[in-house]
Amino acid sequence: MDHKILQSTRELIEEVGYPAMTVDQVAARAEVGKAAIYRRYASKAEMAYAATMHGQRLSPLADTGSLHGDLLALVRTFHVHMATPAARQVAPALIAELAANPELDTRFQDTFLTAEHADLAEIIERAVTRGELAGPVDPTLAHLLLLGSLAAGLYIINLPVDDTVIADLAAAAAAGIAALADRHNSAPGGTARPD
């Protein structure tokens, strides 16, 4: 049932556009009741976000052996979903809904963002274990540096994001995360903070 709802949502966004799509249309196409949709998603925007961006990641988190490589693999995965015409319609609508609906914002934080932060926490932990980072970094800051920059480029600046830009974002995020790790895990004077 979940697959049918998300697939129907994607199809309708492509056919009629996000603004014209309704939950009734999705329910009819997926052959489910509206209640089944609202048990899963608090709003049309949340359902569309899951269908176009978040619910489509099929591959497990890559372990490339380096912080930069892991970040590059992650940002490439997200770019595939975030750069689609459907995602470009849905993301601004979702941002507007999050600002107006605290309950939806909490759900979004607790589901989608928690999963993304967990991925980044795993990447950071591996980098610390490999000795690439001086210590842990808040995954929320890593998220802002990498995926926040990608979202701003795609949805606000309307930057043509190609693989060169993606590689630059990953390099900048890796450098920023390393700088934060150094800053947060060193005492004044350059010695490591005691645990």
How is the biggest beta sheet arranged?
Answer: none
CATH topology of the largest domain: Tetracycline Repressor, domain 2
**β-strand number:** 0
Helices and strands, in order, run as HHHHHHHHH
Mean pLDDT reading: 88
Q: What is the count of helical runs?
A: 9
Given the helix and strand composition, which structural class is it? mainly alpha
CATH superfamily of the largest domain: Tetracycline Repressor, domain 2
Portion in strands? under 5%
- Report Rg: 19 Å
User: What is the architecture of the largest domain at the second tier of CATH?
Assistant: Orthogonal Bundle
How much helix, percentage-wise, in residues?
over 70%
Stretches where pLDDT is under 50 for at least 5 consecutive residues are: 190-195
Number of domains: 2
The termini sit apart by: 49 Å
CATH class of the largest domain: Mainly Alpha
General shape:
elongated
